[in-house]
Amino acid sequence: MRRSLTLNICSSIIGRIFSVALMFIFTPIYIELLGIESYGLIGFYTTILASIAFLDQALNPLISRYFAQASNKDTPLSNLWNAFRTLEALVLFASVLLATVLALSAPWLSSNFTQGTTVSNPQSLRAIQLMGLMVAVQWPSSFYSAALSGMGEQVALNSVRVLTAVLQWFGGALVLAALSNEIQSLFLWHAACFALLSSLLRVRVKQCVQPNKTRFQWNQEVLRQSWRFSIGTLAIGFTGTLLTQSDKFLVAKFTSLSSFAAYSLSFTLASVVSVLIVQPALIVAYPHFTQLATAGMKDALAKEYRRWTQLTVFVTLPPVGALVFYGEDIAAWWLGTKGGDTPQEIGALLPWIALGTMLNVLMVLPYTLQLAHSWAKLSAYKNLLILPFFLIALWYGIPHSGPIVGAWAWLAINVLYFAFEVPIMHRRLLQHALYPWWVFDTTLPCVLGLLIFYTLNIVLYSWAGVSPLITCLASIVLVLLSTASILPACRELLHTAKRSVRY
To answer: What is the model's pTM?
Structure first.
């Protein structure tokens, strides 16, 4: 089991590395070919997609949990296939409905949220209408991904994702360079790639679970047994979406497309942490924790919970520290001369966004632990309590002080999560793990790592005049060594790696 788990983790991380690498390579190319304001429409689509992603939470955790629990039981393939097809029908209906609503609301969205000097209103209108097509073909892929994750098919899942991502990014650059440099052409190409991704993932699910010579039968039981869990995860997704995406819409409404592009690019840089860590961890940890919780293996679950947390801290600190203290340098290196004043804008936003992202990453495993126990109320109530204060602060703050208010708010809500949600959760789940997790697994190593970055930044960069690249690399190495020495899971991993190399 441990070997297959390690293979799934490695495949997920490798797949995410490829995705991040492609994003970093082609984003400057897209900006050069499209212009910074047209690229802002790509950020706007990302915001829209993230804003409706909460609907995924109604069915994706359900299908993943259903398949993960089935691995501990002798569930007939016909039951799995019928459950999958039942939920798939709802997902496909939702994708068509969302695409229709988005296309019909394109005039309103274009006139209220895409203000630019080089992008005309008809151009943005056509682009938003094409966003509806992209939603229709991309939306089902997340459901198929959840199904494959529940079955432990991360290798196949990430292989398909990497292949289609390469086709999407390379092909998009060729379309812009050789055929047309308009954003509509790029969106059409991306829609074709998303359709291919969804089709290939569905084929793999069908290969895994469809029994021979068995007709589909509507499975109402899977909905009847799990509707409370689905409503809870849907509430979490809805409130979480408002907390993570409302700032993007308000920045788009009250600032120019170029300022919104800088804000979107800041979150893109910070998302490297979540793409490489949060998403692979959630994909693999959720079915793994569910299996342990279902089997009643409380001690093993507590051990795995702390081990995964320590490894998450180990790989999170270096990129977060680099973004906090060298954000402007990284943005300037990434965008080059094509970015104009954008690196300076990113440099002002990124420290707050990166710190908030670090805390958000740390909260992924407590959230996963709650879902593994079918407990969704805590996260839902927490988001409902914070949401009105968050929206009021954004509504009054962004028009007066600009996008920086959104960055501060992102950090603030994640501080509240870390400070209040964790102890409340541990009163019910793994009570004895609270203080070790809170103090030794997260707070101390994170504070130590950031202090190392700060000290070397002052001593080497500010006083000695050493180049920021060398200072940043030295900080990363020192942080890795220090966290590896104080976190038991990291020491165990290093010893295991040494034995593997030796033998």
So the answer is: 0.68
